[in-house]
Specification:
The chain is an alpha+beta fold. The protein folds into three domains: about 70 residues, no CATH class; about 90 residues, no CATH class; about 180 residues, Rossmann fold (3-Layer(aba) Sandwich). The chain contains ten helices and 22 strands. Strand 4 and strand 5 form a beta hairpin. The protein starts with 7 loop residues before the first strand and ends with a helix.
Length: about 375
């Protein structure tokens, strides 16, 4: 199977680990050395020939090779299929229904958001409450609900509609729009957004990743109390030069961590509490501890997958980049642009990935400081 009809990038990123990106589907696949060569042979046989010596050296019998080839053909077919974006039917906006409003200021830029009701406002406002201002806006966003969908406009430009089951996508879109506005950048300037929290100390930066409930936000709070500055919580945007940019939301602190947060920050008890849902329960939003010395962007080439447990060993260890990417990629947004994909892969090649388990707040700070 020859695939001259598509563009792809293949790079070695670690020991026995390769990554390949397909332009049509914007898919990234992690492969070991053997499977990577077999796949490249199907994509560009003239550049990546395979002979009997290769088959013998890798101990691939004819039956196994047949199965592998079938799997690779299916993979290529999937990766050469362009994903169709869900079309949003454009809808007119009735400004008379937008009864609530909030304005936020960051980096000397002011955004106003108009909402149809308080419920919609509570989807966005709590994590930005520390940025509230009465100053005149530079731009206005509008959010309202109709036919069981929530719609977003920038001024009078329609940006899309989301069903009630896709609120995380709506919040992600708004977060991206606000980030671009606050930094005076455009969509084309971003190469990736990670589901992770980025913090910096002096010129050292680290991004914390991991599944919800594994302790990312708790660890971010602990690090903030130990002279780290919060760059981004749970939403870390990166430009095409590998810089992670400040996303000025507060950290979401779950109820179970309240006692510890209170010992770390005396002002924590004064923060307003919000009920999110049955799963997340009550939360408070803790803003960056150092608003006067914010770094708007940082180079971040250390990524830590976090797991907290009362009986866990306090340990940090370097891991294979392929293992790390298989965890990170499903929740990440990466630009379809060819140059941005190259930039993302270069960032991966320059970065170091770790697994962290911890149970002790003081020990975990020492462990993280030791990797710099």
């Amino acid at each position: 199977m020859n695939s001259d009809f598509t563009y792809f990038i293949s790079e070695k990123i670690d020991s026995n680990t390769n990554i390949i990106w397909f332009e049509k589907s914007n898919k990234y696949i992690v492969l070991n050395d053997t499977i990577n060569i077999l796949l490249l042979n199907k994509l560009k046989p003239s550049l990546y020939p395979i002979n009997k010596d290769f088959i013998r050296e890798h101990r691939i019998n004819s039956s196994k090779l047949k199965d592998i080839n079938k799997d690779l053909e299916n993979l290529i077919l999937e990766c050469n299929t362009e994903k169709k974006e869900e079309e949003n039917k454009k809808i007119d906006i009735n400004n008379g229904f937008l009864k609530c409003q909030s304005s936020f200021k960051f980096n000397n830029r002011v955004v106003k958001i108009l909402y149809e009701n308080e419920n919609l406002r509570n989807l966005i406002d709590p994590k930005f409450i520390h940025l509230k201002t009465q100053e005149k806006e530079n731009i206005t966003f509008k959010i309202f609900e109709k036919n069981k969908k929530i719609y977003l406009f920038k001024e009078d430009l329609f940006l899309g509609g989301w069903g009630l089951s896709k609120m995380h996508e709506l919040q992600g879109k708004i977060s991206m729009e606000l980030t671009s506005f606050f930094h005076n950048m455009e969509d084309k300037d971003w190469s990736a957004v990670f589901h992770g929290s980025t913090l910096s100390y002096d010129y050292n930066s680290v991004m914390l990743t991991g599944e919800s409930g594994n302790g990312k936000s708790s660890l971010s709070t602990i690090l903030m109390a130990n002279n780290f500055s919060l760059v981004a919580d749970d939403f870390s945007p990166m430009n095409n030069k590998g810089f992670h940019y400040h996303f000025p939301s507060a950290i979401s602190i779950k109820e179970g961590f309240y006692p510890t947060a209170q010992t770390l920050f005396k002002s924590f008890s004064k923060l307003k509490e919000y009920y999110i849902n049955e799963i997340k329960g009550n939360v408070k939003y803790l803003p960056n501890n150092d608003q006067n010395n914010l770094r708007l962007s940082v180079k971040c080439n250390k990524v830590i997958n976090v797991k907290f447990g009362k009986n866990f060993k306090n340990e940090i260890k370097l891991i294979n980049k392929g293992i790390a990417l298989q965890r990170i990629l499903p929740d990440a947004w990466i630009s379809k642009d060819r140059n941005h994909s190259i930039a993302f892969i270069n960032w991966v090649k320059k970065s170091m990935f770790y697994d962290l388990t911890y149970s002790d707040n003081e020990e975990v700070v020492k462990l993280i400081n030791n990797i710099f």
